[in-house]
Amino acid sequence: MKKQLSDIEKKEYSYFIRVLSSAVNQASAPIPYEGINWNRLFSISKTCGLDSAFSNTVLTLPKEYLPNNEMIKILKENINAEILIDINHNYEIEKVLSAFDKHKIKNVPLKGYFIKSEYPRSDYRSISDFDILFDRNQLDLVKEVFSKLGYEFLHNDDNQYHFQKKPYMYIEMHATLVHEWESYYYYLVDIINKSLKRDGYNYSYELSLEDHYLYMLIHNSNHFRMGGLSIRMLLDIYLYYSNHKDEFDFDYLNEKLTLFKLGTFEKRIREIAFNWFSLDKQKITFDNLEIFILLSAILGRVDAGVMISSYKMIKSAEKEGKSKSKFSYLLKSLFPGKNSMSVNYPLVDKLPFLLPAFWVQMWFKRLFIMKNVSIKNGLKNRLSYTDDDVNYYKGLLIETGFDDFDFK
After folding, report:
1. pLDDT at 291 > cutoff 90
2. CB burial of residue 370 (10 Å; 0-12, 13-18, 19+)
């Protein structure tokens, strides 16, 4: 697992963070360092889902510091594409919420829907899907409304129902904020009935400022414990906290942070966020946690996620007196069980004897249609992690207030 950055990588990430700080604080773009590789910086911005903020800010540089004409063209095309997607997103999601109002479907939009408005421009904060909390008792009506709006119902897992309307819209309807096996579930199970009615809507609600911030922290901490905490997540925290700190009920917030055992995590990531993105005191230390975040792309590190899943499977088996290994996890990855396969192949629940056929279908799709498989990296991630890698990650968990690999 990669744990260090080269000097040039540190220089690249330092400049990237400064550009983002300028973008969200609406300040002048930082002057680039000599020998800057604009292709590399743009690639990082795409990987982090912050390319619009990066592109717009870089184009405000004085003429003598601008990238070459080819890169300028790429940046401008990227901005136009992100604006188009953003306009489409805004139009479509409001159409969905309007339909929910019409059919009296109580809903609570989450995360990205509101976080986008915390940024100076909504296209600065790209999203891949919308998350909406709803009452599972209205599921049939929800499906009917989505169907009328041209959405396809893809599948559901234990608490989410997935709907898609190509090319841009992907909506996850959440029956609960977190999974039933999570310790937070007991405290959040009735949150929809504690939400606040939104102005201009009859059936659309929102979490209080404090509850929304807490949910952001819960969501981010879950990502962190499954493989990564991204730059964009920290930027979300920086903006949300900056914009609402004078409105927070800190007695309530601190009580919940203690109850949820997130006090250490919140303090540490907020500290990094403000060190990175505040114009008046920018500071990047490149310690273990900061490097882990910088390498976490949008949702996390694949190598870390694979290591965590593998390690947990092995330790769980040991507790039950069984023997599992990295190779066992590799086989499980190649040939998932019925429960895992049923998420994307619901028919396997009714016809479990066809599970091998679904494995063939899955791998044909991934290898020859989606082409999203790297056999070399897949084997490396599953077989080559070391005890040092595990201890490194355990150290990050302990630093942020979590107990080893306990995800509950």
Report:
1. yes
2. exposed
Residues 6+ apart with CB under 8 A from 202: 101, 104
**In this predicted model, what pLDDT tens digit does every residue of 301-354 receive, in sequence order?**
888 888 988 988 888 888 888 888 888 888 888 898 888 888 778 888 888 888
Mean pLDDT of the chain: 93
Rg of the chain in Å (alpha carbons) = 22
Distance between CA atoms of residues 264 and 270, nearest Å: 10
pLDDT tens track for 374-403: 888 888 888 889 999 999 999 999 999 998
CA nearest to 201, candidates 100, 90, 112: 100
Q: Round to whole Å and give the CA distance between 126 and 100.
A: 24
8 Å CB contact between 94 and 136: no
Pairing of strands 152-156, 160-165: antiparallel
Question: What are 15's two structure tokens?
Answer: 């400049």
**What's the chain look like in SS3?**
CCCCCCHHHHHHHHHHHHHHHHHHCCCCCCCCCCCCCHHHHHHHHHHCCCHHHHHHHHCCCCHHHCCCHHHHHHHHHHHHHHHHHHHHHHHHHHHHHHHHHHCCCCEEEECHHHHHHHCCCHHHCCCCCEEEEECHHHHHHHHHHHHHCCCEEEEECCCEEEEEECCCEEEEEECCCCCCCCCCHHHHCCHHHHCEECCCCCCEEECCHHHHHHHHHHHHHHHHHHCCCCHHHHHHHHHHHHHHCCCCCHHHHHHHHHHCCCHHHHHHHHHHHHHHHCCCCCCCCCCHHHHHHHCCCCCCCHHHHHHHHHHHHHHHHHHCCCCCCHHHHHHHHHCCCHHHHCCCCCHHHHCHHHHHHHHHHHHHHHHHHHCCCCHHHHHHHHHCCCHHHHHHHHHHHHHCCCCCCCCC
**Is residue 145 over pLDDT 80?**
yes
The answer to whether 171 and 92 have CB atoms below 8 angstroms apart is no
Distance between CA 184 and CA 188 in Å, rounded? 6
How does pLDDT run across 51-92, given as a tens digit for each residue? 999 999 999 999 999 999 999 999 999 999 999 999 999 999
Q: Angle 387-399/302-319 helices, nearest 10 degrees?
A: 100
Whether the CA torsion 222, 226, 230, 234 is positive or negative: it is positive
